Amino acid sequence: MGRKPRRVALMLDLQWPFKRHAEIFAGIQRYGGEQGWASIIDEFAHDTLRRPRSSTDLYDGIVARVNHPLARLAAKRGVPVVNVWQSSPARHLAPGVFPDSTETGRLVAEHLLARGFRDFATLTSPQNVDNDLEVREITRLVRNAGFECVSAFIPQHPYRDLANWRKTERLIERSLDQWKPPIGVYVGQEICGRLVVQASHRRGWRIPEDVAIVAGKNEVTLCEQPRPSLTSIEIGYDRIGYAAAELLERLMAGQEPPAEPIRLAPEGLVVRESTDFFAVDNELVAAALAYISAHSHQHIGPDDVARAIGAETRTLQNHFGKTLNRPIATEIRRVRIERAKRELAQSDRALAVIAHDVGFGTIQRLYEVFRRELGMSPGEYREQRQLKGKA
Question: Whole-model pTM?
Answer without folding.
Answer: 0.80
